[in-house]
Write a structure and sequence with these properties.
Blueprint lengths: L2 H6 L28 H16 L1 H17 L5 E7 L4 H9 L4 H9 L1 E5 L7 H10 L3 H4 L5 E3 L6 E3 L2 E4 L4 E4 L2 E4 L4 E4 L6 H7 L4 E4 L12 E4 L14 E5 L10 E5 L1 E3 L2 E10 L8 E10 L5 E6 L2 E6 L7 E8 L2 E7 L1 E6 L2 E5 L3 E2 L9 E2 L1 H11 L11 H5 L5 H25 L3 E7 L1 H9 L21 H18 L5 E6 L5 E7 L1 H7 L25 E4 L3 E4 L15 H12 L3 E2 L4 E2 L1 E6 H4 L11 E5 L2 E4 L1 H4 L8 E3 L6 E2 L9 E5 L2 E2 L9 H8 L15 E2 L4 H11 L1
Parallel strand pairs: 1-24, 1-25, 9-10, 9-24, 11-12, 26-33
Antiparallel strand pairs: 2-36, 3-4, 5-8, 6-7, 10-23, 11-21, 13-14, 14-15, 15-16, 16-17, 18-19, 19-22, 20-21, 25-36, 26-34, 26-35, 27-28, 28-32, 29-30, 31-32, 37-38
Helix pairs in contact: 12-13
């Protein structure tokens, strides 16, 4: 980046408006991050101060670390997070002898189900893992929350605000100050508390850590890190013939052909410094190479060699905004066909080699990993599930993404294990979650998504993934030192998602939600008559009451909320799917009765606990109001966990004996604090697990001699 660019803007992505879901329901709300000369100058001053005080700070830190570790019962806590790993599947495969490393860990230590949160949704559960609190105390209730004024969705975990002032310079506008970038998850993660007591932590890709917080340690953010467009993942599909469209998750762009060469452009964020804005573009040309199935791409002044049917490596791309400002990203290219031309491009990730926004703490940690291990995926939800849902890539191409991302994560994790000799190493792997979401239909032969599709080629994919996780556990165990505690855990389990329930359609049928006269309904609660609507659904589990004085057009008096919640819950619980002869809704949770805390009002009044095989329909998740109450789920996304929490507990393996009868995910944070002799804060609702730690080598040898 040029000096002028450093004095102007480091990065500014497109600020996508609210009508966009994300992650599990589609691309998400956007982000804009800017800075100015004054911010850079202040950073330089702070850097100079930090350099001058470094010896003193190191001395203080060493004293604090010695004091902290003197109280510790362990040398190191290693937390291996395997998102979505199911205790039911693990148990069955261990019984069949297919998971030897898990089995050994269970025999020598512990294997138990780990109770999850209500709702059983990843951002909620991982927030409870790190803070030891319920949603009412950490403020994360779903992927999405609602704007009380507009009723439109907002990203639940982060909030971005624009700079307050700009200086106009002809057709350009230069910000005086930086955008606000705020993490909405409340309560302190346990690694920040440990850091306050001198204990170092290395935290890699734990969900809901964007933007990164300062603490004594290093971290790389995960879920909710945006792509360069500011969404939670927008792929591009380039095609030559006919018409193409996708319903969610991507954009279709028709290429131009000139003889043997095709040309088009990559679409980037809106121009951050031009008054007129406009989406930034980088042109490219593609032509056949000298060898069969070889392709040459001219992109951003560089030549990139591709092979038909094979992903490229991460390829850097820079969008030029003017005044020397470049917004940098990376992408992978997959040429599917030359005649006619078809190409898939992954979402454009933030370039970790030159991060355009903070994705790690300290900022340089992302760069360190990139220099050491090569460029890697930075997008929060990096595996492109929507491209597979839309048929733009096939199962094999999706699994190749999963494999590459998993290998990137392994290299980071093992580097952390090698470098962090004391304290905490925590790393979350997304592989189990993504594979089960997209391949669970192979475990349920009558799944609607199997109609007209092959059911044999990838029938062993889920089981193969569990074997891969077993190998990871074995490799991790090999790197443990005497006195280390290993915790292998998941945030929730998994089940089938065969039928969708449109909660808004049910609310309309029962008279709780009303459309305007003549309105057909649609996404994002379009056409709802708020003057006659008492309740509505948004996201993957929540029902909100339209409360007077809280929502902008609320009509339900506050003293009538309790009665309305009870009425809706009694009607909805036990809802039958007559077409299948099954109960679809197992339970309806009143969060006001379950939880207490300062952020309770930010969540929904009710959470729907679906039975196995059911989930909020795709339309319901995005605030859809039209259609039938029940519908088949025919997407590749055929497995899920957004059901009644008792149906999908996570797993807990440790190399210590856990005597706690029913461990819960909120217990992990206080357990780690207690192991390092740090007092558990009173606001934490979890309790330290009762552990019988493995003896030190000297103690074990002494016990053997005494028994002999």
């Amino acid at each position: 980046m040029s000096p002028r660019a450093k004095l102007a803007i480091i990065f500014a992505s497109a600020l996508a408006l609210a009508p966009a879901a994300f992650g599990y329901v589609g691309p998400g709300a956007g982000f804009a991050v800017v800075t100015s000369f004054f911010a850079v100058f202040a950073s330089l001053v702070l850097a100079l101060f930090a350099f001058l005080t470094l010896p003193f700070r190191r001395l203080v830190r060493r004293i604090r670390r010695r004091r902290a570790l003197a109280k510790a019962r362990v040398g190191r806590v290693v937390i291996l997070g395997l998102d979505g790993l199911s205790p039911k599947i693990v148990g069955e495969m261990m019984a069949d002898g297919k998971l030897p490393h898990f089995a050994r860990l269970a025999e020598e230590g512990t294997f138990k189900p780990l109770a999850t949160t209500v709702p059983a949704v990843s951002p909620v559960a991982w927030s409870s893992f790190q803070t030891g609190t319920s949603p009412a105390r950490h403020n994360i209730f779903d992927f999405l929350t609602r704007d009380r004024a507009t009723y439109l969705p907002d990203l639940s975990s982060a909030r971005i605000g624009p700079p307050r002032r700009y200086v106009n310079l002809g057709k350009f506008r230069i910000p005086l100050g930086k955008a606000s970038l705020r993490l909405l998850r409340k309560s302190k993660p346990f690694w920040k508390i440990l850091g306050d007591h001198g204990v170092f932590s290395n935290v890699i890709r734990v969900p809901i850590t964007f933007p990164p917080e300062k603490f004594h340690g290093v971290s790389l953010s995960a879920m909710c890190v945006p792509d360069l467009l500011g969404t939670q993942g927008t792929f591009s599909y380039y095609y030559e013939e006919g018409d193409a469209s996708v319903s969610e998750g991507g954009q279709c762009i028709k290429v131009e052909r000139n003889g043997r060469e095709v040309s088009s452009h990559l679409l980037g964020p809106d121009n951050p410094i031009k008054k007129a804005g406009g989406q930034l573009r980088v042109p490219f040309n593609v032509r056949p190479g000298k060898r069969d199935r070889e392709v040459e791409m001219s992109l951003d002044g560089a030549r990139v060699k591709l092979s038909v049917g094979t992903y490229s490596d991460w390829t850097p791309v820079a969008f030029r905004a003017g005044l020397g400002v470049r917004v940098r990203g990376i992408a992978r290219f997959l040429v599917k066909s030359l005649q006619p031309f078809e190409m898939y491009v992954t979402p454009i990730n933030v370039d970790p080699d030159r991060p355009a926004l903070p994705i790690s703490h300290p900022y340089i940690y992302a760069v360190y990993l990139s220099k050491l291990l090569g460029r890697y995926a930075t997008l929060g939800l990096a595996e492109d599930t929507w491209a597979l849902n839309e048929g733009v890539i096939n199962e094999g191409q999706f699994l190749e993404q999963v494999r590459r991302h998993h290998n990137e994560r392994e290299r980071m994790f093992f580097d952390a294990l090698d470098k962090t000799k004391q304290g905490v190493v925590a790393c979350v792997f997304d592989t189990p979650d993504r594979v089960q979401h997209m391949f669970f239909r192979y475990l349920t032969p009558d799944h609607p998504a199997n109609r007209g599709r092959d059911t044999e080629k990838y029938a062993g994919t889920v089981e193969d993934m569990y074997v891969k996780m077993d190998e990871l556990v074995g490799a991790t165990a090999d790197k443990l030192a005497p006195g280390d505690l290993l915790i292998v855990m998941s945030d929730h389990g998994f089940t089938s998602f065969a039928r969708g329930v449109n909660v808004n359609a049910w609310l309309a049928r029962e008279g709780y939600l009303t459309l305007k006269d003549g309105a057909a309904g649609g996404k994002w609660l379009e056409g709802v008559d708020w003057s006659r609507t008492r309740a509505f659904a948004l996201g993957l589990a929540g029902i909100y009451v339209n409360v007077a004085g809280r929502e902008r057009q609320g009509i339900v008096p506050r003293d009538g909320v309790t009665a309305l919640k009870k009425e809706i819950a009694e009607k909805l619980k036990g809802l039958r799917d007559d077409a299948r002869g099954r109960v679809a809704v197992r339970d309806v949770y009143d969060l006001g009765e379950m939880y207490s805390g300062p952020y309770l009002a930010g969540g929904p009044e009710l959470v729907v606990g679906y039975d196995a095989g059911y989930r909020a329909s795709w339309d319901s998740a995005t605030g859809g109001t039209a259609g039938d109450v029940f519908e088949d789920n025919v997407k590749a996304w055929s497995g899920d966990h957004c059901v009644a929490a008792d149906l999908v507990p996570g797993v807990l393996f440790t190399n210590a004996r856990v005597t706690t009868k029913k461990p819960h995910i909120v217990d992990i944070a206080p357990t780690v604090l207690e192991l390092f002799g740090v007092a558990v804060p009173s606001y934490m609702e979890g309790r330290p697990l009762e552990l019988e730690l493995p003896p030190e080598p000297e103690e074990a040898e002494k016990d053997v001699n005494e028994k002999a």
